[in-house]
Structures are given as structure tokens and as C-alpha cells.
């Protein structure tokens, strides 16, 4: 059983430990070593939260004394902790270098990463406690990684509810009260109204935010709620009959708000609108685009019907057009099919980029034609005997020669 230093002191970044065992293993397909220590400050991956990262150093090489202010990046003798897990109360540190049993090591966790996760995890408790208290719903899923923090609830919310939860949790942050972490006796535990996703056995660790939440939890938390900084609920979507919520606390919230503000400023520059007026400005552009698109489709429709008229009398008519959407291209071919029993083809594009095509016929086998074309050109596509479509990498003159040689004129 490993002594879990983070259990009682989330702020402990450096520690001395003795190597209990070191076994060679494979990690992500590479040689690695599973090191078990007598005690650790590394939080292992569990309960939906990723593990801490950091380094180990061999003691007795002048490194342990300077452990707390060591510059890790310059220390070539450091041992990288690649992953940390816990099984049956034993913490396994997956490392890139072996260390003999009984060796004294100094461990150093990455504080910036740890504190970020403490901010996110404490924020998660306040959100889940608030949802439990005001909406009678439970947190049924949680994930905390470097990329995102997601909370799953077995209920749905209105937009006003999300703002209410956000306001309530931020108020708890402004109040800057102390986090109460304790280990109740079995009898005391029976009297507590606490949240827990599963039935617990053995010593239970309770994390309480008085007035907001009480929950069984093994993760490191901030000492006072003010350290969370602030919280934003950045998204909430329907998920498995309930809701998946994305939250950002502390520095994460600041970084993403800054990025969003930069995007907003960029949109303001592009649209030449004040920041407070970018939404109507973008709507105006969107409406203008829809209008232009509508006019373009109508223009293409008129163009392809005019081109179809020009070749309508031919036995195997072909339309060539620079640009046209797929529906209009099909309209052009269908217009021709009613007037001939030959191959009716429409090619859209240019010699440099290639062409999209549709070939149809009321009596000929278009699939046989495209198969013979595939032996001469690079073609993607297929279809039925009466209609095929796809793309072709060829010049117009080469396709014309192929048609002539195949007797399609
Ligand atoms: Zn927790």
C-alpha cells in the first residue's frame, strides 16, 4: 500500500521516497519501468481525472538537497514519470529509466499542471453540488484532461438554468471560504448527506464546500474557493437523455476568454463593425451571401439549360460548363435524355483541376461506358446502367478524342 501524500496535502510538490520495486514493462509500445514507491505525491489517473506528470531524481547525488528549486529541464539524470496509476491501493509510476529497489528518490510533480487540475476539480464539485441542491440531479460522469473538463448530469437544463449555476458557483468563489477535507468514521459517515457515484468501502475521504457541496472524492483540491479564480460553463448539450456540460476554471478560463476576445476583435475588423455590433454585421453578410448564392444557382440553371438547347439535336450531346452545382448539372443531363436515345453527358470544371461529370442514357449502358473510360483516365465514381456520375482527371480534348474513338459523336 502506497502512502498517498496528496491525500492530505495537495500543495506538496516535492517528496523523498524509497523504491519498493521496479519492473520492466512496455508502455505505448516502448520499454519502460513500473516503479512502486513507499509514498508518493503523484496523483494517479482515477475517477475521470488524468494523472500528474513530473520527474524522479536519485538521492545521494547532490540532487535531493536542492530538490525543491531544481531546474528539471537541465538535469540529464532525471527520470521521467510517463504515467501514474493505482491498483489495490498501490501507486504505479511508469518511468523511462529503471531505479533499483531500496534506492532513495526525490519526486517532483509538475505544479502548474497540478494547480490547474485542482482549480478545475474544485470548480466541478461546486457545479455538481449546485446542480444537486437546486435541480435534484446527479453528476453521472466526469472527465478532466489537459484538453477539456466535462460533467454529465442526468437532467436537462434551460438556458437560464446554466446562467444561474454559473452565477451561484462564481459567488462561492468570491466568498473565498475554506475547503473542508476530512476522513469520517464509519458511524459518522452514515449521518452525512454526501454525493458519491458508487458504493464505497474502507476509509472514505469527504470533500466539503460548506453550504454548496459534500462529496466523497480522492482528488487534490484548492485550500480556499477563491483560488479557483472564476468559472465559465462554456457549453451544455443534450447527452444520453441528460446534459453534458463543459466548464473552464482559473487560468483555463482566462486563456480561452482571451482567445475568444481576439477572435471577436478580428471579426470586428473584418466586418468594420464595433464589437458590440458584430452579430448584426455578420447576419447582414450571411443574408447577402444567401442572396448571392440564390442568384448564382438561378444563373447556372439558365446557363445549363441554354447550353442543353444548343446540343439538343445531337445524337450524343455533351454539355461543357465551367461552374455549376450538382443539381443543375443533373437538370441539364435530364433535359437532354428526353430527346435522344444516345449518351447525354455533362462535364463541369476545367483542364487544370479536372471535371465533375454526369452521363445518362435512356437505352445505352452508361456503366459499361464509364468502365471503359476508367481504363484510359483517372476516374472516381459510378452509378447504374442509365446514369453514372463522378470526377475525371483529363483534358477536354482528351475526353473528346476518347468519345470519338468510341463512336460516341
Ligand atoms: Zn471529486
Question: Could you give a short description of this structure?
Answer:
This protein is α+β, with helices and mostly antiparallel strands. The chain is built from eight helices and 20 strands.
Task: Report what the structure shows.
The structure is a single chain. The protein has 409 residues and is of the alpha+beta class. The radius of gyration is 33 Å and the shape is elongated. The longest helix is centred in the C-terminal third of the chain and has 34 residues, at 278-311. Mean pLDDT is 94; it is low at 63-69. The protein contains 8 helices and 20 strands. It has helices at residues 111-135, 159-175, 186-190, 250-271, 278-311, 326-337, 366-374, 396-405, and strands at 3-4, 14-27, 30-37, 39-40, 54-58, 79-87, 90-95, 104-109, 139-144, 149-153, 180-182, 206-209, 213-216, 231-239, 242-249, 318-321, 344-350, 354-360, 378-384, 387-393. It is 33% helix and 30% strand. Helix 5 packs parallel to helix 6. It has 3 domains: 3-109, Beta Barrel (Elongation Factor Tu (Ef-tu), domain 3); 115-262, Threonyl-trna Synthetase, Chain A, domain 2 (Threonyl-tRNA Synthetase, Chain A, domain 2, 2-Layer Sandwich), CATH 3.30.980.10; 295-405, Diaminopimelate Epimerase, Chain A, domain 1, CATH 3.10.310.30. The strands form 5 sheets. It has a 6-stranded antiparallel beta barrel. Strands 16-17-18-20-19 form a 5-stranded mixed beta sheet, sandwiched between helices. Bound molecules: zinc ion. Zinc ion binds at residues 121, 125, 215, 217, 219.
Amino acid at each position: 500500500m502506497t502512502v498517498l501524500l496528496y491525500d492530505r496535502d495537495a500543495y506538496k510538490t516535492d517528496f523523498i521516497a524509497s523504491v519498493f520495486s521496479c519492473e520492466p514493462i512496455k508502455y505505448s509500445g516502448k520499454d519502460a519501468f513500473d516503479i512502486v514507491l513507499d509514498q508518493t505525491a503523484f496523483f494517479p489517473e482515477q475517477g475521470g481525472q488524468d494523472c500528474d506528470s513530473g520527474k524522479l531524481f536519485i538521492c545521494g547525488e547532490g540532487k535531493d538537497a536542492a530538490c525543491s528549486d531544481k531546474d528539471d529541464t537541465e538535469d540529464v539524470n532525471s527520470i521521467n514519470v510517463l504515467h501514474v496509476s493505482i491498483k489495490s491501493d498501490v501507486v504505479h509510476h511508469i518511468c523511462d529509466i529503471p531505479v533499483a529497489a531500496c534506492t532513495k528518490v526525490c519526486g517532483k510533480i509538475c505544479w502548474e499542471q497540478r494547480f490547474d487540475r485542482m482549480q478545475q476539480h474544485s470548480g466541478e464539485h461546486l457545479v455538481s453540488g449546485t446542480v444537486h441542491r437546486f435541480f435534484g440531479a446527479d453528476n453521472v460522469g466526469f472527465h478532466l484532461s489537459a484538453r477539456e473538463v466535462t460533467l454529465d448530469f442526468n437532467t436537462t437544463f434551460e438556458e437560464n438554468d446554466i446562467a444561474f449555476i454559473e452565477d451561484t458557483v462564481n459567488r462561492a468563489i468570491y466568498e473565498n471560504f475554506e475547503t473542508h477535507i476530512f476522513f469520517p468514521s464509519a458511524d459518522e459517515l452514515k449521518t452525512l448527506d454526501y454525493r458519491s457515484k458508487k458504493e464505497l468501502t474502507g476509509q472514505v475521504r469527504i470533500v466539503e464546500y460548506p453550504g454548496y457541496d459534500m462529496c466523497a472524492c480522492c482528488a487534490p483540491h484548492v485550500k480556499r474557493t477563491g483560488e479557483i479564480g472564476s468559472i465559465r460553463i462554456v457549453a451544455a448539450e443534450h447527452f444520453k437523455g441528460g446534459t453534458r456540460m463543459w466548464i473552464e476554471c482559473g487560468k483555463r478560463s482566462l486563456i480561452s476568454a482571451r482567445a475568444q476576445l481576439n477572435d471577436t476583435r478580428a471579426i470586428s475588423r473584418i466586418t468594420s463593425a464595433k464589437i458590440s455590433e458584430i452579430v448584426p454585421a455578420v447576419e447582414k453578410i450571411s443574408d447577402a451571401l444567401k442572396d448571392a448564392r440564390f442568384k448564382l444557382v438561378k444563373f447556372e440553371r439558365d446557363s445549363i439549360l441554354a447550353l442543353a438547347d444548343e446540343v439538343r439535336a445531337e445524337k450524343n450531346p455533351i454539355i461543357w460548363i465551367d461552374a455549376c452545382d450538382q443539381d443543375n448539372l443533373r437538370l441539364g443531363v435530364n433535359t437532354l435524355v428526353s430527346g435522344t436515345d444516345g449518351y447525354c453527358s455533362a462535364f463541369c470544371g476545367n483542364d487544370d483541376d479536372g471535371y465533375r461529370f454526369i452521363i445518362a442514357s435512356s437505352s445505352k449502358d452508361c456503366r459499361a461506358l464509364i468502365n471503359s473510360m476508367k481504363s484510359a483516365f483517372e476516374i472516381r465514381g459510378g452509378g447504374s446502367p442509365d446514369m453514372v456520375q463522378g470526377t475525371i482527371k483529363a483534358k477536354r480534348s482528351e475526353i473528346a478524342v476518347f468519345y470519338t474513338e468510341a463512336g460516341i459523336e
